[in-house]
Structure formats: structure tokens, C-alpha cells
Write a structure and sequence with these properties.
Elements: E1 3-11, E2 13-16, E3 19-22, H1 25-36, E4 44-52, E5 55-66, H2 70-86, E6 93-99
Antiparallel strand pairs: 1-5, 1-6, 2-3, 4-5
Length: 108
């Protein structure tokens, strides 16, 4: 059986004219609570350093490992669009890779 790993990259810099604001940790936690948790039962969140247009910024990543499920992808696209609108982001990246040799370790 094939599994897929999907990673979504959420930048935190907000351009507002000549001002640059940052999505705060509190705002991110609220977004996770209100927009991500209700749609997915299993996922991981990580904080990374990213670069957008040559500028360094904190980037949150959402990782979901799943079977080929169109509902999951539709929810990820919805969440990305929602984040983009709320925080005035130019782009949210969603990257999916297929794992042919996925190993799942369960309790014996």
C-alpha cells in the first residue's frame, strides 16, 4: 500500500504597504486550534527558518502522512487559502511525496 507525506509551508511575514508585520505565535496557535485541528486527527507542526524573495522568516510546517485521500488534499487547500487571506500571504506551498516503502511500527 502506498502512503503519502504532505507538507504545507506557512510563512509568517505580513506585508501591509511599507510595514512588515509577523504572524505571532498566539495567532498561529489560534489558527491551528480553529482551522487545522477540526479537519485532521493526526499531524505534526514544526517551526523552520525559510526565505521568501530573499528575506528570512519563521515558517510553520504542517505535515500529514496519509493514504491517497482527496478529502485530505481538499482540506489542505482550503486551509492554505484561509491562511493566505487572513494573514495576507502571497503563497502557501503544499508539497506531496509518495512513499512506496513506508514502514509502520505498531505495538506488539
Amino acid at each position: 500500500m502506498c502512503w503519502y507525506t504532505t507538507i504545507c509551508y506557512f510563512g509568517t511575514k505580513i506585508k501591509d504597504g511599507n510595514l512588515i508585520k509577523i504572524v505571532s505565535n498566539k495567532e498561529w496557535e489560534k489558527f491551528v486550534k480553529n482551522s487545522i485541528k477540526p479537519r485532521f486527527s493526526s499531524f505534526t507542526i514544526s517551526n523552520k527558518t525559510g526565505y521568501w524573495e530573499g528575506e528570512k522568516e519563521l515558517t510553520h510546517t504542517l505535515t500529514i502522512i496519509h493514504k491517497n485521500d482527496k478529502n485530505i488534499m481538499n482540506n489542505l487547500i482550503y486551509i492554505a487559502k484561509e491562511y493566505s487571506m487572513i494573514y495576507n500571504q502571497d503563497e502557501i506551498i503544499i508539497n506531496t511525496t509518495k512513499s512506496e516503502n513506508f514502514i509502520e511500527i505498531s505495538k506488539i
